Amino acid sequence: MNARRNPLAKLEAFMQRIVESPFNWLFPSKLEPIEIARKLERAMDDNTMLQGEGRKLAPNVYDIYLSIKDHQQISPNMTSLSRDWQNQLVEFARRRHYTLKTVPILRLHTDTSLRPGALRIEAEQASTGGDGGMMSTMALSPDQLAQIRAQLPSNQPLPGIDAGSSPAHSSGRSGATHGARSGVNHGGAAAPVTPPPAPQAPPMPQAWLTIRLPQAGQQTYRIEKPLVNLGRQLSNDIIVEDKRVSRYHAQIKYQADGQFTIFDLGSTNGITINNTPHMRQHTLRNGDQFTIGSYDFYFERR
């Protein structure tokens, strides 16, 4: 029997959004973790898959989209909140007699189209390999990968992740052996070769982007991690909703020299930086302006 979604649950969720959306628009309020927990449960309900013998398979990946302001308030506590939400979802699935293939995976994103107090959750069932390992792991954080590995039998690799990294580890060991053989001291003993340490980037300074949105005022995004992705795809840190923008358009990277650099990721239209169009790379200075699609960004740092 082919799996299929519960159409009645989807209709109920649609009607609830129609009722809630105007109220949230007129009376925005601070987003509380308990509200996100309730929406996660609803997303699980709405996206269960009917399987053979009346079993219902619950989704195990949940993408949580928040406004930039709410994202900045929630993300510092995401580790503890994620653990609580996971436990609640597991208990919710147990009460509803749903099947969960793995501990729920929660991923937090920003969406510039959302007002403070509003959120959107997309839930899906990540595909699994025949040995129970997760296949769709490209967008998972190290913590989330660790959660998945903890559920697998001892020493069982994750397909596409552990197996793909084995050659690197293998070549690293063979390189060390080769170095030991070639580096022989006068006593005839092998001298281990220690690779030089990689340069460490200095601590990140305070930096932020002021984003001017088309017909929606402006928002501020604090740069709190070394890589910030911009584009039309929903998995980006900053979502630029414009048809002229590529799915993965640009990336801001904090470099080892203490500078922030913006890179074009092979987009069709490039980036306009300080009124110069089609730029592919630029070291950002305090006060720089760049444009992606119809969104204007102002970079500031201390």
TrEMBL record:
Region (Disordered): 154-205
Pfam families: FHA (PF00498), FhaA_N (PF12401)
Gene3D superfamilies, alphabetized: 2.60.200.20, FhaA, phosphopeptide-binding domain (DUF3662) (3.30.2320.60)
Alphabetized SUPFAM superfamilies for the sequence: SMAD/FHA domain
UniProt-listed SMART domains: FHA
InterPro entries: Cell_Proc_Reg/RNA_Proc, FHA_dom, FhaA_N, FhaA_N_sf, SMAD_FHA_dom_sf
Biased composition (Pro residues): 193-205
Record-annotated FHA domain positions: 228-278
Name listed for the protein in its UniProt record: FHA domain-containing protein
Organism in which the protein naturally occurs: Dictyobacter arantiisoli
Taxonomic path: Bacteria, Bacillati, Chloroflexota, Ktedonobacteria, Ktedonobacterales
